[in-house]
User: What shape does this take?
Amino acid sequence: MGSIQSLTSARDYEAIARELATDFRVGAAARDRDRVPPLAELERIKASGLLAARVPAAYGGAEIDLPKFARILVILAQADPNIAQAVAPQFANLEKLRIYGTHEQKLHYFGLALDGVLMGNAAAEQGGNFIGDVTTTLYRAGSEWRLKGRKYYSTGSIYSELILVTAAHEQGGRAAVFVPRNREGVSVLDDWDGMGQRTTASGTTIYDDVLVHEHEVLRIPAFGQRRTHEGAFAQLMHSAIDAGIALAALADAGAYGREQARVLRESGVSSATQDPYVLHTIGEMAIAAHGAEALLGRGAALLEQALAASLAGDADANRLLGEASIAVAEAKYATTEASIRVSEMLFRIGGASATSRGLNLDRHWRNARTHTTHDPVSYKARAVGDFYLNGNLPPINTKI
Assistant: This one.
């Protein structure tokens, strides 16, 4: 292992994230406006050790708890949500490895994370009748495994050394396959053209009968039948990114109000900082953003407790995981609403001049509106209502 592993236990990951975020924030608007990939920034994250923050202690990692992890992702997303989303698959991949990997696989891939290797994601596909349908297939060709399929929204793949590809296993169920990005038959396209989250490298990846070694295959037994923390963890990450966007929009609204906003003569005041309607707007934005942030913290804390119970084999683990999923669903709904609303309300502070392309303040709304399309939050509200009204735990899937 490299030097990162030896320093893992002594690192203050939140302090590292804040230091990185201070620098990342400076160029975020320009990177978005000009669609400049954050290559240097991602290399700094790889070297910082953050990518291994959740590696279990048994495998040499710090295994930071979920509330701290959520705060770190909020910090990065507040600086640049593109960067936060580009590295988020790394953490989801490591949780999947924790649940389904063999001891040998954990030694290998956790070790790579400790060495700063970034792992992208390729799960989503277009087509099919339902969200989450998978046609990419892992199949036998003589004595070899081969992977064939096409993935869309392969977040962070261009920046990654490895891509974790979700596939249907020819023997039934699903598998997740660790595929080196530069392996023969792998094509990574920079064709993501969304209006927001423009530099997340969420483009297409194609797998043309790619050779797969046995140790690269994670079998996922009882897919959709066994409740784990995997789905809620993914939703926690999305919630953290949305919370970061809301907080960034709030900060920019405050700065604009103090430094650039003008007031109407009819207001009777000489500064936007004294205008009661500006004060009301900023106050409403802060309440929405901080309320969502608080629900995120609550969801992270309950998921941490549920995960501990699950790892310990607690008889109540299924219930606790279900209840934690409900708490995270509440956070996801709240952060979705806050990120969209707060990033739109920003323009009530600035008027027409705030729409300047040079300022690029609209990136907050574009990022929020784009990122929050990941999940139909109406189904989260429904699941929350069903739990509190009827006592029903949410369905076992990766969306709630």
